[in-house]
Structure formats: C-alpha cells, structure tokens
Write a structure and sequence with these properties.
This protein has an 11-stranded mixed sheet with strand order 1-3-2-4-6-5-10-11-9-7-8, with helices on both faces. It has one domain: Amidase signature (AS) enzymes. Helix 8 crosses helix 9 and helix 8 runs antiparallel to helix 10. The chain is an alpha/beta fold. The protein has 12 helices and 11 strands.
Length: 435
C-alpha cells in the first residue's frame, strides 16, 4: 500500500484541477473523519460515490432531484472507513441512478476522463467520478458500486484498480439500489494493495445481507500465485475488440505468465455471453420496480437515456422476472462447476477504450460486455491497468475469481501489477489546471 495522501494536498489538487475535470459533486472543506486517532501519514484519503449516504449531506444519485435530502446516518461502509481512520474529502459524480456504463450524465453533467484534457472522453460508469478522482491523484481510493461492471469499467478506462467483491461480503446499508439481486460495493484505488485494504475495512457482517466474515487483505497480498491455473478467453471468442485493447490483452497474458501462473486459452461456457442480456433484464426489471414512482414524478428532468433503460423493465411481468431468477440460479451452478477447474478467468476489462463523448452511442453498452457476467454469476473480480493505447488511453485486465474467493482475485491482481509495466503511471493534469 502506497503512502497515503495528505488531506490538505488532496484538497489543493481538487481546487486546482477539478473545476474542469468535474469528478466531484461536493467537496468537504473539512474532511470527514479528521478526528480519528491515527497519525497524519497513516490516514488514507477517500471519496464517496454520490449513491452512498453521508449524514446530513444530500445524496444526489446523479440526479437533479436528490435521492435523499439529508440522510440521518452514514452508509455502513462509509462509517467503517471513518472509524478506521480514513478521511473523506468529498462525494463523486455518478451516472444517474447508477444505470449506465459510459459515464455520461445529461441531468447534472459528467466528468472528463483525466487522460485527455483536450477531448472530453468517456470516463466509464457508473462510478465515473470515483475513478476519475483516483486517476487524477485527488484521493488514494474511492467507493463505488457495481451492478454490471460499474467499478471495473471506469477503473479500466481511467487507468486505476477496480475491485468488486462477491455478494454477502460488503454491506449495502445506506447505498441506494439499482438491482438488489446484482448490486455490490467495490473499491477503486491507485494500486491493488490500497483497494484490498479498503475492502478489508468495509467487509464483514452487518446484521443484514452481509453475512460473510471480514476479508483478510494481508493474507491475500502475501499469497504466492506460482502454479495457479487461469483460463483466458481467446481473441476469436471475445467478440469485437479494439485492436489496441487486443494487443495489450495478449501482452498482459504474457506478463502474467512471468508470475509462474499457467494461462490456458479456453472458450468459457456459453452462459458468459448469454448473461449480458439476462443481466440487463434483471437490472431494468428490478430497477423499474424500485424507481417507478420517481421516474413518473421526475422523468422530465432525468437523463432521457436512463429513463429509457428503466422503461425496458416496465413490461416485464413478475412471472418473467421469476423465470429469469430461476435461470440465473441454474446458470450459476453450471458455471461455478466449470470454473472449479481453474483459479480464475481472464479477459480484457472493456473491449474498447473510453471514446470521445460526442461519439458515445447510448443504444449499446460495449464497455460492460465483458463485465456483466461477474455480477450475473455472483463472482468477485478485479480490473488492473495493463497499458495505454496508441492514443494514450488506458486499458484494463480483468480477473474474475471463483465464488467467494476474493483472496485469489487480489493475489493474482497484485502479482500481475508487479510485472505489468504500469509502474504507477498517472495522467498529465496540466491541461485541467484552473487559470
């Protein structure tokens, strides 16, 4: 874990660069948690996706009309980080109601991808501001939520680490839902160790849906992965992939082999491809049932593409939704049995880099094509930076683990990080500086 950022330094960077970068919706001039017992150099600085409640601070949810005007309590994961001595400097932008992978937001605006100050490029979503804030060096880590890739996608497009746990490990209390059967909380960070330590703090039973014991970050980071066996999806079975992304993916597999891991090119079961549509059905159907009244009341001031996505679930009957859940259970059993023969599955995180915003096609979701399966199949996953495209945009390597095996995902991510050649690269923010 790298040396934590001083809160004063974080706030200074935010003031200098975020006016144009737009990662934050709200900055705390006095960081939350500054009364904790740890020393100044021991307290990491973090940001909070604006889908998580903070006491007395509006939860915007990426919308013009806040989801909660004045929450009475911190989200459980926020409180655990504050109790551990971490300091929060602000709340970050999100796609409205967390329903989108590009990072766009026509309701309240979208962050820039920090890797291009000349062209407004997609930062990835829905945890867009959290990824941008980490990439820009504003914070050591940030909280995000992941229903179909919303932690891993922006991590890949912004060149940071994105770690998604399986369900039941991290509390969802105080996190506004998109699809309750798929939602998970995750960590975005500048390195695997910081993400792992954040996960260790926020994990563990909460008296509700989080029923698993705390994650042991130190044990995972100390694991020797030599001899581990990974399945990697061959290029010909990945579908359409940007040529630079494909090149970086194959190079990453070669580097991964240097850690002593065996990488076997294998076409996974068909459910990986099929899960994209079913995961989308679950998101739309569950999301419509949760947010219907809000959409009917405030739809005219919402991002129109978000409204359209939710309306897909309007005509899905309860019987059809129940069938989708039953199919999901069968698909999980089948895939888990197949994955038992490996220590993980490797793919590019996203098949394309973040495009210019004016080229985004909201009718398709290519950035989530390789990430949704982990949510649908309830598997942990991590995205680790693996290089830059010819245009200087980041790419990510995704490692998906077996059920409840976050430890192996972190161990493999940390091992790859050491040989990745990334070496803590960061974007040049000079073009974002305030006059």
């Amino acid at each position: 874990m790298s040396t934590p950022t001083a809160p004063g330094e974080a706030l200074a960077r935010i003031r200098r660069y975020d006016g144009r970068l737009n990662a934050f919706v709200r900055v705390f001039d006095t960081p939350l948690g500054d009364g904790a017992p740890l020393g100044e150099g021991e307290r990491p600085v973090f940001a909070i996706k604006d889908l998580f409640d903070v006491t007395g601070v509006p939860t915007g949810g990426g919308a013009r009309v806040p989801l909660s005007e004045a929450p009475k309590a911190n989200a459980e994961v926020v409180q655990r980080l504050l109790d551990a001595g971490w300091q929060a400097v602000g709340k970050t932008q999100t796609v409205e109601l967390a329903y989108g992978g590009w990072g766009t937001n026509r309701a309240v605006g979208a962050p820039w991808n920090p890797w291009d100050s000349k062209v407004h490029r997609a930062p990835g979503g829905s945890s867009s501001g959290s990824a941008a804030a980490v990439a820009a060096g504003f914070v050591d880590a940030a909280l995000g939520s992941d229903t179909g890739g919303s932690v891993r996608i922006p991590a890949a497009t912004c060149g940071v680490v994105g770690l998604k746990a399986g369900r039941g490990l991290v509390s969802l209390k105080g996190v506004h839902p998109l699809a309750p059967s798929l939602d998970t909380v995750g960590a975005l960070a500048k390195d695997v160790a910081t993400a792992a330590h954040m996960l260790a703090i926020i994990s563990g039973p909460d008296g509700d849906l989080a029923v698993r014991g705390p994650f042991d970050a130190e044990a995972a980071l100390a694991t020797n992965v030599e001899g581990y066996r990974l399945a990697a999806v061959p290029m010909e079975h990945l579908g359409e992939v940007d040529s630079d992304i494909g090149r970086l993916y194959l190079a990453a597999l070669d580097r991964l082999r240097r850690t002593g891991v065996t990488v076997q090119m294998v076409r996974p079961p068909k459910v990986v491809d099929d899960s994209f549509a079913t995961n989308g059905l679950l998101m739309a159907s569950e999301g419509w049932r949760i947010w219907r009244e809000r959409i009917e009341a405030h739809g005219k001031v919402m991002d129109p593409w978000i409204v359209r996505r939710f309306e897909v679930g309007r005509d899905v009957s309860d019987d059809r939704l129940a069938e989708a859940h039953a199919r999901r259970a069968q698909d999980q059993a089948q895939f888990h049995a197949w994955l038992a023969g490996y220590d993980g599955l490797v793919t590019p995180t996203c098949p394309v880099p973040g495009p210019p915003m004016d080229q985004v096609d909201e009718t398709v979701s290519p950035l989530s094509r390789l990430t949704r399966a982990a949510n649908y199949l309830d598997l942990p996953g991590i995205s680790v930076p693996c290089g830059l495209t010819s245009e200087g945009m980041p790419a990510g390597l995704q490692i998906v683990g077996r059920p409840r095996d976050e430890a192996t995902v972190v161990a493999l991510g940390a091992a790859f990080e050491k040989v990745s050649g990334w070496n803590g690269r960061a974007p040049d923010l000079s073009g974002f500086a305030s006059a």
